[in-house]
Design goal:
Strand content: 15-25%
CATH class: Alpha Beta
Strand order of the largest sheet: 1-2-4-3-5-6-7-8
Largest sheet: 8 strands, mixed
Number of strands: 8
Order of helices and strands: EEEHEHHEHEHEHEH
């Protein structure tokens, strides 16, 4: 059985950060952090089923919802200010988890923009480098993120599609060679890891990703 509550998280600029804390009934001390995309929230298929899979593996899960795409104050900011905003929110998220009694971060999931959160956390918090990480459509063409991944990424799965504008086969090959990464490339999948115009194939891709996450967490 899973109970759902929220933590009191004061994010960037003193703004409250929406979140849902899924606690399973086994009183586990393990927790996963979920960082969504700019306009891809935790109720959308990739993250919804990732959360369900993580919970089924016996790990509490904190899903944040920065909802940036619906925030005009965020959207009008320049790239540097947006990065500071994201960092402020994810640091506040980590602080809130650390205040919870006996909770240890053992897994982190990032989708698109959320992979920038993963990069920042594994670079700046040595204690998080042993956590399992799941990188969904990472922004690997971002030089800072790529260097963070190459330097600090350990037990990790990466999933990206060939029709994603952020896909670069040379970068994925470099990551596969240089890190302990299991890189999965989905032929024809876009930035939502869907096959445009083909619902059946998109569902098969989703099932493939769920299976990958299940095996990774086993």
């Amino acid at each position: 059985m899973v109970s759902i509550s929220s933590l009191d998280i004061t994010g960037y600029g003193g703004r409250p950060l929406k979140n849902r804390f899924f606690r399973i009934s086994t009183d586990t001390q393990d927790v996963a952090l979920i960082f969504p995309g700019l306009a891809y929230n935790c109720d959308m298929p990739l993250l919804y089923y990732s959360i369900e899979t993580i919970l089924a593996s016996g790990i509490n899960t904190l899903a944040v919802d920065y909802d940036y795409s619906n925030n005009p104050d965020y959207m009008k900011q320049l790239v540097r200010e947006r990065a500071e905003w994201l960092i402020g929110d994810i640091e506040a998220t980590l602080n809130a988890v650390n205040k919870e009694e006996n909770q240890k971060v053992v897994c982190m999931v990032g989708k698109s923009l959320g992979t920038l959160a993963l990069g920042h956390l594994i670079e700046t918090h040595e204690s998080l480098r042993d956590a399992k990480t799941i990188w969904l459509t990472p922004l690997v063409k971002n030089p800072e993120l790529l260097e963070q991944m190459l330097a600090y990424m350990k037990d990790a799965v990466l999933v990206i599609g060939t029709k994603d504008s952020h896909y670069d086969s040379d970068i994925i090959d470099r990551l596969n060679i240089s890190t302990q990464l299991s890189g999965i490339v989905i032929d024809g999948a876009n930035h939502s890891l869907e096959i445009e115009g083909d619902v059946t194939k998109s569902l098969r891709v989703l099932m493939q990703i769920v299976t990958i996450v299940q095996q990774f967490l086993a």
